[in-house]
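I have been asked to look over a protein record a colleague put together. The record follows directly below this note.
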Amino acid sequence: MDRPPDIAIVGPGKVGTALGICAARAGWPVVAVGGGRPGHAELAARKIGEAAFPRGAPAPRAAPSSADVAAAGGLVLLTVPDDAIGRVCGELAEAGAFARGAVVAHCSGALGSDVLAAARDRCGRRVGSMHPLQTFPTVAAAVERLAGSYCFIEGDGEAAGVLEKLARAIGAVPVAIAPAAKALYHAAAVMACNYLVAMQDAAAELAAAAGVKRATWLAAVGPILRATVDNVLALGPGAALTGPIARGETGTLARHGQALAAAPAGPRELYAALGRYTIDLALRSGRIDEATAGRLRTALQ
């Protein structure tokens, strides 16, 4: 692939628009965008065009239909919601919308390229997927964070190769993953990111029950939360573990249990589940022995 393929983006939401901007900045031509909510295509085309302008490349056109968009691309990115990927791909395949020789790909974390079977089986197109492991609350944040992020890629050999080159072009780190492993990989990503957010909400609820205002708690926990994440990344979870379980303090866990009896059920149940896992982690990492683990499990109950 001497020249990057023309990119067409179907469903230009936050991820699709951000990928388009980053691709245009890297010299990959984005030629058409469309689909999704009314007005999204025009806004995405303008933003991507602004990124392409300094390189002298034309702005993409906002096409009237998804089929028009798909027909324009040598690389068609279906950045629609996960539950719509298979349906949209099937409709485009039925309409014969994919150009000859095109690569068709999606950006879902939980789905493999098999969801694009219609493009492969009916049209003979190469299919793949590329999931950036990053959180994108806005287009601006997505553009800022894509460089340096890891992109997990799978698919037909040539399709995966094109996606790997795109990932490198936008400054991301490509990693190969098996198609059948995508759902489990995505569950890990959800646990690492989304569940961390939920856990902070539960902690804030417990702090509020202790009389600490939510805003005060979130400000107070910020430094230790950042330090904990830094320690995990630098040392690994086992070595980074601190606190009463790592120290084998059964009395502290018993006092927590007494206090939690009057706390809201959700945070209380979450504390117990995480406590059980943390005891296992402390045992596996050699922080405590089996006898201490047993006493901690009893205290936790």
Q: What stands out?
A: The domain at 7-180 is CATH 3.40.50.720 (Rossmann fold). Residues 92 and 98 are 7 Å apart (CA to CA). The chain has two domains: 7-180, 193-300.
